[in-house]
Amino acid sequence: MIADPAVFVREQTRLSPVAFVPEIRLHQADEATALWHLTEATLDQADLPPPFWAFAWAGGQGLARYILDHPETVRGKRVLDFASGSGLVAIAAALAGASDVEAVDIDPFAVASIGLNAAANGVAVSARRVDLIGAALDNCDVLLAGDVFYDRGFAAVLLPWLQRLAAGGMTVIAGDPDRAYAPATGRRDLARYEVPVHPALEDATVKRVNVLQLGFCEAL
């Protein structure tokens, strides 16, 4: 059993700069499959999610780059990094001057990773293990989500919630590397990047990432 997820994260990763956002360092793994199998074997579980927390995924890299290059997006605002993984986007928001940053994920290893990575970058990020889909989020001004439209079922539940939040006045911005289930309408594209990625994680060494804001009709 893994008594302390933070110890496991430190032992199975190394602290290194993010390829497209070198201002930020993360605890990153070199290989995904071996780490996934090790986690399952150690916990004696065969249904664990992939170790999203151990890598800087394309959508998160693009979104973090955008936030650092456009700090006015989050400066002085309360920010939620949804499905945070490693905490990359949350850290970018904190560095860009957000007044309060919370990062949430359902994976306990992600929560541990977020804490370690925030400390490594000298920023304050509150990490919490929780599923917020459907919540009103009254204490949030900006919701950021990196690479969340990768699964049909998840996107079908997630997107209506994000759209409701945007319709209620919240700024909702996602980083998406042309995943199959990203919204085709009701969005405004803010930026596009060519992001280097780990070849073991993607079908290419570079992915095109769109940074998009939800809550816009086609006429806009």
Key features of this structure:
globular; alpha/beta; 220 residues; two-stranded antiparallel sheet; seven-stranded mixed β-sheet
CATH architecture: 3-Layer(aba) Sandwich
Structural class: alpha/beta
Strand order of the largest sheet: 5-4-3-6-7-9-8
Ranges where pLDDT stays below 50 over 5 or more residues in a row are none
How would you explain this protein's 3D organization?
This protein is α/β, with parallel strands linked by helices and 220 residues long. It has a single domain, classed as Vaccinia Virus protein VP39 (Rossmann fold). It is built from six helices and nine strands, in the order αββααβαβαββαβββ. The protein has a seven-stranded mixed beta sheet, sandwiched between helices. Helix 3 runs parallel beside helix 4. The longest helix is centred in the C-terminal third of the chain and has 16 residues, at 152-167. The radius of gyration is 16 Å and the shape is globular. 45% of the residues are buried. The mean pLDDT is 90.
Question: How is the topology of this model organized?
Answer:
Blueprint: H1 5-12, E1 14-17, E2 25-28, H2 32-43, H3 58-69, E3 78-82, H4 88-95, E4 100-105, H5 108-120, E5 126-129, E6 142-146, H6 152-167, E7 171-176, E8 187-196, E9 206-214
Parallel strand pairs: 3-4, 3-6, 4-5, 6-7
Antiparallel strand pairs: 1-2, 7-9, 8-9
Q: Care to give the gist of this entry?
A:
With 220 residues, the protein is an alpha/beta fold. It has one domain (5-214): Rossmann fold (3-Layer(aba) Sandwich), CATH 3.40.50.150. The protein has helices at residues 5-12, 32-43, 58-69, 88-95, 108-120, 152-167, and strands at residues 14-17, 25-28, 78-82, 100-105, 126-129, 142-146, 171-176, 187-196, 206-214.
